[in-house]
Amino acid sequence: MRPLFHPAVEDVRPEAILHALSDPVRAAIFTQISGLGCVQACSAFAVVGNKAIPKSSLSHHIKVLREAGLIRCERHGVEMRNHSRCAEVDGRFPGLVAAILNAYASVADKPAAGDSPATA
Question: Is position 112 within any domain?
Answer without folding.
Answer: no
